[in-house]
What we know:
It is built from four helices and two strands. It has one domain (about 1-120). It has about 120 residues and is mostly helical. The longest helix is centred in the middle third of the chain and has 29 residues, at about 60-90. α1 packs antiparallel against α2 and α1 packs across α3. It has a two-stranded antiparallel sheet. It has helices spanning about 1-30, 35-50, 60-90, 95-110; strands spanning about 55-60, 115-120.
Amino acid sequence: MRFLGNLIWIICGGFLSAFTWWIVGIAWCITIIGIPVGVQCFKLSSLSLNPFGKETVGDGSAVSFILNIIWIFLSGLELALINLILGILLCITIIGIPFGKQFFKIAKLSLAPFGRRVVKV
């Protein structure tokens, strides 16, 4: 069931979400200082491609808190807004509600991705 959900997810906008994470990750990797941020973006793009059966757990520290503050102003708001709009569009139909919920999960993660890791459920 997860496979089917993830396959439909990619068609319904999951690829667009993952593509935005890739673009932001590449932009961060251009600078040497931003490489750890870019690597985190690439990790979270895999969640954007296959969100069903995966969750994020927090194990944050003071460094991740500071990175999240910087992240919100430089990249987080844009990614969260894109995922929020896609989630709202999918929640218009009854069939799209599970997919919209996944977009909301990714939008929330877009605001504070540092100190989080992806685990299989």
